[in-house]
Amino acid sequence: MSYVLTFANTHAAILAEKALLQAGYPAGVMPLPSGIKAGCGIALRVVDYIASNTLLKENNIVVSAVYQVSKNLHDSVYNEVAL
Known about the structure:
Elements: E1 2-6, H1 10-22, E2 27-31, E3 42-46, H2 49-58, E4 65-71, E5 76-81
Antiparallel strand pairs: 1-3, 1-4, 2-3, 4-5
């Protein structure tokens, strides 16, 4: 299962990716999925949102929202997760 993190601006998303990769967490920048109507236009895909969010908080990088990604027959479905 994967998660999508959104940010208030592109700068925060890029800083988040850099911090996560340096700490050894798998992460990748992606365009904001059309199923998500918040954020700056880019998002970050991660596997472990709890550990990722903890690391980002320690680095003073604010995550706007977290979405759990699940698949149905035709699409990805994004359900917001409480921070």
